[in-house]
Amino acid sequence: MKSRPLQPAAPATDPQGLPFSPEHGDVYHPRGGALAQARHVFLAGNGLPQRWQGRERFVVLETGFGLGNNFLALWQAWRSDPAHCGHLHLVSIEKHPLPRDALAALPRAAELAGLATQLQAAWPPLVHGLHRLAFEGGRVELLLAFGDVQDWLPELVLQVDAVFLDGFAPARNPVMWTPELMQQIARRCRVGATAATWSAARPVREALAAAGFAVERGDGIGGKRDITRAVYAPVHVETRVPPGRPAPRAVPHEAVIVGGGLAGCAAAWALAQHGWRSTVLDRHAAPASEGSGNPAGLFHGTLHGEDGVHARWNRAAALEAQRAVAHAIATQGVPGSAQGLLRLETTLAPAEMQALLDAQGLPADYVQVLDRAQAAARAGLDLPAAAWFYPGGGWVAPARFAAALLAQAGAAVRWRGGVAVDRLEHDGTRWRLRDASGATLAESATVVLANAHDALRLAGSKHIALDSLRGQISGLDPARLPEEARVAPKLPVSGHGYVLPALDGRLWFGATAQRDDPEPALREADHRHNLAQLQLLSGRPLPTDAAACTGRVGWRCSAPDRLPLIGAWPDESLGLGPLQPRAVPRLPGLFAFTALGSRGLTWAALGARVLAGWVCGSPAPVEASLLDAVDPARFLARAARRERSLSSRRAGPGPG
Questions:
Q1: Count of domains in the chain?
Q2: Using only C-alpha atoms, what is the Rg of the chain?
């Protein structure tokens, strides 16, 4: 799904003092008040809070977020109910989201004011995409889909328990109430799911009934005689699984994670927020001792003219990384900053950069264009080119960040270092992880392979390939440089290599990238390469003598298409099979979270959220097309398409 520029909402006030949409010529809520409508129509109309009681998870789909009153009322009801569900999810679509300042200016009922303040603090940049806002320690989750409801419904991966049908009046905004839209909603509902709306229009009722809902009238509110309530009760029950998702499994909420780098630690962190316990196995004594062990690294978004899956994945991941890193810095003292990053642009002129940004409608709190002088002033370096400024980008110490994620997971995670997994065995119910002597290290119905390249060996993959890139980072004490060569960046800069602000009195910069290079020792030639890149970034006459440099060597695991592997592992014993990744059969309970490449810090938090969604059956935090893009099964689907194409060519044209 391509991104589209957003047109933010600009509410006015009607003569009665109600918030009013000039675009649709309709009020956001009736005179009786938003809170009264939310409670009577959407909560009571869906049997809440009673229907979520005793449930582990309850998922609500809303077709118009509007001013956010339904979410606040839902959240407040959850907080007030001692028997509430373990996890509450609201997935809400909004084509015209409010800017943060407009959201903050809205009047709220006194009992919702505190929750409204939390919502405002978490409000995301107005970027087309799916934005995850978490509250109550992750037990209340708001997934905001910014964009058109017709685009978003086919892309949502979830199983819905209740639906809030809340758009402007059908006569004012008919696209929100079409039979086709109701069919899309029904495809994402569990049997027995409910729906409610303030609208009593006959076409709305008929569209719901045609989609498989049993429809009834309810008492109205705020001057309306009737409202509509419905229960999803299709005549023919299909056994369906949401696109890109394996069938839900009734298994204990415990997992074994192989690999204790950034990916493995993030996986344990995300699973813990769903109430799962994890055992992390690693051959090293401490977390993040291999590819995630550099002293510091970068995280930031990207911007591409085509806005394909890479740009959309990186944008979503950067926004999630900003939240996770900023929290670790603020609450756990992790070294780093989420206050901005510059990425040099050597191809486009500033005017062309701005035209691209305007065409995509990306807001200034996500990315800005700086000419060379502006970028140099922001960086404190004589930069060679204009730059993209990512206000939410930054840097962090990866190992400290990984340890902070484990600490946030707390008692839900057990660390076992100094153990090496030699092989996996499955008895039809559980996986056994054995060492080289055959001893059982652990067993579980759920295993996550977060161990870089070694995931392929343990899974026995024949169709999935991963690359190994050797990278050397260099460190230098800036005090050892002559005054005219001093480099003191105010924020991280990437482009011709990268350079970070000084950490513990040392400037870190780099890095090299050598494919299939097993050399673990530091090389002076690589230090010289990094120094040359730093000279380009800084505009300073740096010495080329590498003797003063220290450094570190590590190997980055990446996929050929430069996207991670996240999701349920395909069952390759069944052959290539389907042409679409989401249709490929899976090995029961085996998952992957690997191939984070050079973007581990950017991808770790979102990737872990995606993984947890696969494992736990919660709504996916990215759209179905992005799940397909990172799904390990994509390689089997591509191989199947190649094989079919070759077979067609070998068969030749049919009889004419």
A1: 2
A2: 26
Q: % helix / strand / coil in the chain, to the nearest 5?
A: 35, 25, 40
Cα distance between residue 464 and residue 601, in whole Å: 23
pLDDT tens digits, 573-609: 888 778 889 889 999 999 999 999 999 999 999 999 9
E strand intervals along 71-225 = 87-94, 129-135, 140-146, 160-164, 189-197, 213-219
Same domain, 426 and 284: yes
- C-alpha distances (whole Å) from 353 to each of 307, 356, 496, 633, 641 are 14, 5, 18, 36, 37
- Is 200 among the domain residues? yes
User: What token pair was written down for 648?
Assistant: 């067609």
Containing domain of residue 157, as a range? 32-232
Listing DSSP states for 561-601 in one string gives: TS--EEEEEE-GGG-S--SSGGGS-EEEEEEEEE--GGGHH
Residues of the chain with pLDDT under 70: 17, 20, 24-32, 222-223, 238-248, 544, 652-656
Residue 382 included in any domain: no
Task: Tell me phi and psi for residue 480, to 5 degrees.
Answer: -80, -5
d(CA 581, CA 633) in angstroms, rounded, equals 5
Between CA 628 and CA 570 the distance in angstroms is 13
Residue pair 419/427 in contact by the 8 Å Cβ criterion: no
Distances (CA, A) of 29 to 77, 168, 200: 19, 9, 15
Residue 93 and residue 202 share a domain: yes
41, 221 contact by CB (below 8 A): yes
Same domain, 132 and 268: no
Domain of 40: which CATH number? 3.40.50.150
DSSP string, 402-466: HHHHHHHHGGGEEEEES----EEEE-SS-EEEE-TTS-EEEEES-EEE-STTHHHHHHT-SS---
275 in the same domain as 138: no
Bridge partners, 112 (sequence order): none
CB 389 within 8 A of CB 300: no
The two structure tokens encoding residue 525: 């030639």
| Structure-token pair, residue 335 | 């070294």
Are 274 and 138 in a shared domain?
no
Same domain, 148 and 269: no
* Same-domain check for residues 61 and 206: yes
Whether 439 and 582 share a structural domain: yes
In angstroms, the CA 585 to CA 637 distance is 11
pLDDT at 170: 84
DSSP per residue, 18-64 = -EEETTTTEESS-TT-HHHHIIIIIIGGGTTTGGGTT-SEEEEEES-
Q: Supply 419's token pair.
A: 């153990």
